[in-house]
Amino acid sequence: MDEKQKRRVRVSAHVLPPEIWLRILRWATLVPNALDTDAPDPFAYPPVPSSELMQEEIRRSLRTKRSLVLVCKLWHELSIAFLYEVIYVGLMKTLSRLEYALMWGVEKEDTAKALVKRWTKRLDIAIRDLRTHDIKPFQVARFFGSFAPNLEIVVVRKSDMQNLFCRKLMGMLSTTNTNLVVFDSTHEMHDGPEAHERTVEEMRISDDDWERMYETNLWHMDLYKFESMRRLYINPHNISSTAIQTVRGMQPPLHMPHLQFFYLDNTFPIYVDLRGDGTDLPFHLSYCGGSPSFLAEYIDKSPGLGARITTFEWLAPWVEFQEVFNVISERCPQLRNLILKVAMWDFVVDELPKATLPKNVRCLGLRSYKPDDKRPLMRKLCEAVAQCSLAAKSIRVVRFMDRQANKNLREKSTQFSLKMKSELDEKKISLEAFDGRPLFQEA
Q1: Which of 416, 397, 390, 396 is nearest to 405 (CA)?
Q2: What pTM did the predictor assign?
Q3: Which of 50, 108, 134, 169 is at 20 to 30 A from 185, Cα to Cα?
Q4: What is the pLDDT of residues 53-109, one digit of tens each?
């Protein structure tokens, strides 16, 4: 190839249509499920990654995007289109640089605003502590409220910034956006003992701080503006007792006919109204509490909720399982999935054999936050799970939903788990690992 032909090739590479570059950049930086707004099926295969894993993938993707922008930096619109579709803010300096880029990176300010409004769909806020920086929470909220009115997904992690930030952000979004479909406030708080201890450490705020932040504790009132919500998680441990009493008296219930996931804590009951055109959608209720009477009252006071529940996830304290099972069995005719999350396997060993699973449940998921590989305990666990599952006529899947339990059953308690598998196989019940694959692969 002579010099003239080489020059022609180089020129043609730089005049590729922006649409082609956009496809290449999207393919190179795609984060699966990052823009999904439907609630994931907890028993689907392959499983949807956890929130923390998802955010790690987003961080890696953004690093790749920043490198690729250097290739096509002359095309400002194209760069903004794929750079700001998903925004992750982990440091205040990141936010400062982002604001500078949007204000001065394009020749005309109006152009920058228009482009970001067009493209930004997801915002992840994971700043460790807003109070230690010069930029105030209301400035952050104002910035995103004006620059990203088309947000669909907002994930706010790091509990020490919740009350300082959420009301401002939700207030801004409620005036510029009516399409927010996912709001997640530290959903993975209970994701393992280490994560739980870390979160508790970060949540230590004095009573005086709570009182001073009373006004900011009313941010959740703006949720009335978002009937399009599909997934809603509010961590009640980040809301003051005064605000909780206010919310308990909220009338009427939040009307969210398309809601598919909701986290309920018995200390912070926000009633929901699910009646409307989304009655055929699956619904996942995650309940933290041990009071059967509260759960029954909550379902009865939330119109359309009982008829919609297909997955019931229970962060169970050490109480009798049967009373809660009776409540959901009587009120949830569409229930198909039951997930029990316990602090220790002893809870399951003691209570599950005495309980009868709700009728029509096809999938049983089990998870403990405290890994325990003692052989006597694992033997009793296998016996309890097998006994309860075999007594339930509708069960088709039993899944151990944490990695440590999978490892213990496969490596340290193989004898007991194989016996459990054999008993379940006779009734054509699948025994699965956390990822949806068989706990023991067929030879």
Answers
A1: 416
A2: 0.82
A3: 134
A4: 888 899 888 888 877 776 666 666 666 777 778 888 877 666 666 666 555 544 455
Q: Which DSSP string corresponds to 174-210?
A: HHH-S---EEEESGGGGSSHHHHHHHHHHT---HHHH
pLDDT higher than 80, residue 245: no
- Has residue 393 been placed in a domain? yes
Cβ atoms of 321 and 312 within 8 Å: the answer is: no
Decide: 273 and 255 in contact? Cβ < 8 Å. yes
Q: What is the rounded CA–CA span in Å between residue 222 and residue 235?
A: 16
For residue 280, give the DSSP letter. Answer: T
Amino acid (1-letter code) at residue 338: L
| DSSP-H helix ranges across 70-192 | 76-83, 92-104, 109-119, 137-147, 162-176
Query: Do the domain assignments include residue 378?
Result: yes
Asked if 174 and 226 count as a contact pair (C-beta separation under 8 A), the reply is yes
Tell me whether residue 20 is in a domain.
Answer: no
* Residue found under tokens 């979004």: 173
End-to-end alpha carbon distance in the chain: 56
Q: Please give the tally of structural domains in the chain.
A: 1
| 373 in any annotated domain | yes
Amino acid, single-letter form, for residue 265? D
Could you tell me if 72 and 21 are in contact, meaning their C-beta atoms sit under 8 angstroms apart?
yes
Residue (of 165, 157, 175, 101) closest to 139 by Cα position: 165
Expressed as residue numbers, the domain containing 436 is 361-443
- Token pair listed for 275: 């009646």
Fill in the DSSP letter of residue 334. T
Tokens representing residue 430 in the block = 């699948």
Around Cβ 109, how many Cβ atoms within 10 Å? 11
Q: Tokens 């903004």 — which residue?
A: 80
